[in-house]
User: What shape does this take?
Amino acid sequence: MSKRLQVLMDEAEWREIRKTARSRRMTVAEWVRQALRGARSGESLRSVESKLAAVHRAALHRFPTGDIEQMNEEIERGYVTGRAR
Assistant: This one.
């Protein structure tokens, strides 16, 4: 069973999407379906994989750290005074 999706957009955005669909010789509806499929299939895998890769790369480095209590105090002091020291 097919379902209908209604999306509201301003005129300029609509013209851009229509122009893009025409340049690919397809209807706006087909262009939107393909764009949604691409976003759905690519986003979940790429998102998780890229985040894990970034964490892995970061874990390979030794970054300078400070005492957590001191850092929290400095952050709080900045909130209270409106400026950092």
Observations:
- Helices lie at 11-23, 28-59, 68-81.
- Residues 11-63 form one domain.
